[in-house]
Amino acid sequence: MDFKKTxxxxxxxxxxxxxxxxxxxYKLPRQHSEIADRQIESNLxxxxxxxxxxxxxxxTRSPFADMYSASTAISKAHDIFTPNAGTASKMVxxxxxxxxTRYVLGATGPSAFDCSGFVGYVYRNFGINLNRTSRDQYxxxxxxxxxxxxxxxxxxxxxxxxxxxxxGHVAMVVSVDKASGTCQFIHASVKKGVTYQKFPDNGYxxxxxxxxxxxxxxxxxxxxxxxxxx
Length: 230
Description:
Layout: H1 2-23, H2 30-44, H3 50-61, H4 65-80, H5 85-95, H6 115-124, H7 134-137, E1 142-143, E2 154-157, E3 169-177, E4 182-189, E5 193-199, H8 204-208, E6 209-214
């Protein structure tokens, strides 16, 4: 009888020990834990995440590897031929030298400008020849959506003399605020001469806006060093 009680007591002690162990979380040895932490940090870093590496490996080893390579090459080529912000920045700095210069119809600078004469003068200083009038400048370069606008691009508007829907005024973008969806341009204003203007203005320029064109990096940009500046 005493033997049976002893066996039962031993079994109960064993069960209690297992239950206590089950309630405690198992801890990896410190060395293993440090290795796991480093791996997690590596996978979450921006350098070379595990998922990205795996995806690239799958793409390059799949039956569609040639298509993937071609797509990558096109993407890199697009990056190479994207105009460098440095050229546009220099144009913006050069243009602001003429702030306050008076407006004279038909004037091409530097003592006076009309709108197309002003942007033409700025571009010509960087080896790019634009057409003389705003209407003809609107036929140059490439159309660009306002969501992709950047400094150096040209904005075109109608005006009282040109009539609704007809190009009669041009300005050059000097800065872009992606957060607010606005930009600032510089232009030769009839009343104020060369000045800055915010766009959209929910007023005159918003009502008369026609479109935007890009000159830098297009066929119009025939500078000898054009590829180096892109």
